[in-house]
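Lab notes, practical 5.
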Amino acid sequence: ILPFIGFFAVTIFFFNSTIPIILKICGATMLKLNLSLLTSDMWAVLILIFAYHEKVDWICFVAFAGMAAGLVIYSYKPS
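Output from the prediction step:
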């Protein structure tokens, strides 16, 4: 259980370290969009691939790329 606790601690550290940068560059709306991306179904896809060795449909990766592209387009234009 210690590797999971360590991974959680490292993840929370990096997430909380990047929050001020995201807020300064893009504003609170980008932070909300980033959180929705982090909690998206892509985590389920990654768990299916690496933990259960299942094959997923290619459209999942296209959807993830579309979400990531939308975040980049949204943050590219200054407010």
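Observations recorded by the TA: Residues 2-76 form one domain. DSSP finds four helices and no strands in the chain.
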